[in-house]
Model the fold of this input.
Amino acid sequence: MSEPLLELLGVEARYSAVPVVRGVSLRVSACEIVGLIGPNGAGKTTTLLAIMGAVPHVRGEIRLAGRPITGQAPERTVSDGVALVPEGRHIYASLTVWENLRLGLAGRSARDGVDEDLEWIHGLFPVVEQFRDRQAGALSGGQQQQLAIARALIAAPRVLLLDEPSLGLAPSVIDTVLGALTEIRQRDVAILLVEQRAQLIAGFADRTHVLNNGQIRMSLTPAEAKDTDRMIAAYLS
Amino acid sequence: MRRLLAGRELAAPVLLIVVVALIGSATSVSTQQNFITALVSVAIVIGLYVFMGNSGVISFGQISFVAVGAYVAGELTIPTQPKHFVLSNLWSVLQNTSVGNVPSLAIAAGVGALFALLVGIPLMRLSGLSAGIATFAVLEITNNLLTFWPKIAPQSGQTLSLVPTTTGLFQAAAGAVVAAVVAFAYQSTRRGRLLRASREDHSAALGIGVEVHRERLIAFTLSGAISGLAGGLLVHQIGSVTPDQVFLELTFLSLAMLVFGGVGSLWGATVGAVLISLLDSYLLQAENGLQIGFFKLTLPSGASDLILGVLMVVVLIVRPRGLTGGREWDLSLPRVLRRRARPVEVAEAEEPVEVAGGR
Amino acid sequence: MLLQAIIDAIAVGALYALVAVGLGLVFGVMRLINFAYGEVITAGAYSLYVTRNLPLSVSVVICFAVCVVMSLLIEEIAFRPLRGASPATTLVATFAVAIALEAVWLIAFTPQGKTADLLATLNQSATHGSVHIRWLTITELAAGIVLLGGTALILARTTIGLQMRAAATDFRAARLLGVRANRVIRFAFVLAGVLAAVVSLLLTVSQPLVTPTFGLDVTILALVGAVLGGIDRLASATAGGFLIGFLISFLGDELPSSLSSFSTSFTFGVVILALLLRPAGLFAPLGQSSVDRV
Done:
């Protein structure tokens, strides 16, 4: 696609004194899935949180459709059209599935089209409709993950960020999730996907970046993803 | 040499105490009282600091140890003849014993420590908000008992008076210095440092085998001793005491002094106490008319609280960790003579005071 | 009269429960104790004095307005700048705000206090016979039920209520979903203000003399009760507030006269015991450890 929906330019992020992200540049366009992999502590989650405005000290530029959004309050970024599916899902266990979904509406700026979007979401993740009035905490991990994505989608985002969606999921559920992502992509959404399962994502995403020690060491196409040696080298660099 | 260097961080608080005493001695008799009050406040706040600063647990109960110390020291030094008349229902121990000035202070410290120990054994298990509320309950109970229990205090909250006013500048300064030295000695020991470790990270400390409950109890008891001593100094300064004088307002004031100065350090406790106390004294005087140069400033009654309250809020917004940022001040020899500094800094990037289950 | 004492105690409990809700709402979203809440109540009471010559309905409306505005002002001026600070700092800061405001009342309305006896008719008895129930008691109970029920409904059914519940559980996650922090916080303070107004109205009936410490005494006790019950959940905080109010009133009535001046000690003795037995809160879910609590 044409210009990127999401752009990071030399982004540095830190919580206190030590920088976690040390100069990351990447771009995601609509209808694209970009993967971000790397070892633990590489700064993947922090990168996503920095985009959302949830990291106290961020330098560099983050642009949404050309407009800088660096340093904005998270709620503003959400209503501008960026949604996050956080690591560990962060579902409100004591609220019902439907209430969790309703919370996602808080970030939606488009007043209308809620019913259509809901229908589409129910199509992607039938469990969300099925367990509407169940306490979210009673759902299985896979079901919670689907709820988390559904919740992000109801905000009608232009950019979708996912942090380790496959964590703790059975392979069949992972397939559902990845399938859903493919469908979501078709709707002109730009997707940035952080994952631990390097092979899985590298083969799936349009482009995958390897993050290590706060910096991007390498970028891989799906074809190059088969090259395990390169990947290991990137992880160890 | 090492001993000398280790005492570096004690120098600043002690120096300040001495300076305050010296300045006080050069002023008029009436103004001197403000300086004495400042020094007694230092002792009170250090008592508070020894527990709160090291453990990170908020306690509203330390003033009850000050109260107990004040009443014990007061009752034991009132001349026996009037005591039999005025306080006829006191326990015979208090009724019949009469001690000198310094012994009364020592006993006040001892009773304060004992009280703290008894209270602390059950209470030190608690943390955070429940600890705060439980210690507040202790404060309330102590106040209630001191008001209405004739065996330990005058009837119905009447003033305990006729206490010899032996706390002048010297005694107040000496008491404050003792408090500072004891507090510093404690925080320099391994025990003190272990407790501070638990303040940073409760679970980690437990993990390395620190018996947090016991360490807190020790700090709490020590705090009781210092607070008791401060109470003795207080009652001997004013010559009388009522339950209200050692209750909510003093609790707020001492807490404010500590937080203003910086909860995490002895220097913070000292600075906060001196500055706020002097300010409070002058503001109170201004309510009665204060001569400033050519004109007389008369604040409306209650304005001192207003100004102090606003000042407190402003300072906390601007410097949430207090004036000193919770650090000790190292008044050392010039760098050339100094070996590598061993900081006693407790300030760190995140929350210093315990908040279990934060956001 | 045991029955009398119980009925009166329930009414007092309801009043304290309302204050506990006000404290709990703010604690839920901000994780801090609003010591200045008592000053909102005092402000409402003083406004009743100031408007005493106006028609009753106007006075009441103004009272609500004053309390809500006061509540929002406190949030804006004292709480907002302190949002990231440590518990000790915010504790002292809100206490300082309370002290400062008390001084304002002292200066503006004198230490002797002012009388606001607009609703004195509620002091009349509504029943005959040996059990003496004042209209006030009935009103307090009714107000308690209506307001507690209303708050529960708002939280359960409305969008903003849902957002508040989410924010109280995990504020960060809520913001990342697009929940507007300021809106949720302000709403909590508005609700708290409304509750404070009702409390100030009811309190002036039994205590027509409004002094600078009018609201503080109730707030401190309600706070103790809320923490006792478990301040991190609204339901347990409310129950705790009710319990404290009930205890204070009941013990005050039922203790033998030789011990009645020690009702404070008894009440707080119970508080300590309860905290030791269940540090997570008397009404907290079983199995919740004290380390998890704030």
